[in-house]
Design a protein that fits this description.
By secondary structure, this protein is of the alpha+beta class. It has 3 helices and 5 strands; from the N terminus they run βααββββα. A 5-stranded antiparallel β-sheet has the order 1-3-4-5-2. It is elongated, with a radius of gyration of 16 Å. The relative contact order is 0.22.
Amino acid sequence: MPHQHAVRVYYEDTDLAGIVYYANYLKFIERARSEWVASLGIDQMALRASQGIVFAVRRLEADFLRPAKFGDDLVVETTLQSLGGARLVLEQVVLRGGERLFVAVVTLVCLTDDGHAARMPAELRARLAGQVH
C-alpha cells in the first residue's frame, strides 16, 4: 500500500494563473518522501550521525499531467519500486480526488559525507525491503 501524505495548495505555491508552479511539485514530493521515511521509523539525522550516510536524489523523471490550483487538497502517494545495495527507486504520484496530476520516478542513492556512494546498512535495507511493491 502506498504511503499517503496530504498537501494543501496555498497562494504561495501558485503562479500568476493560479496554478501550481511546476517546481513546487518537487517540494511536495520531497516532503512526502521525508514523511514516508519517518513513518518507517528511520531517523535521517541519526543515520547521518551514526553511519555517516545520507539519501540524495540521483535521478528524477517527471510527468505533469494536469494542473493543481490554489485551494486544492492533494495527496502524494509514495511507493518503493525497487531496492538495491545503495539505491532506491520510488514512484510518487500527486492526486486530487483520485485524479493523477503529477507522476515522478525518483532514484535515491546513499552517500557518505564526502559525496561517495555507500551501501545501505543491513538493518536499514531490511526495513526498506518489506516496502517494495
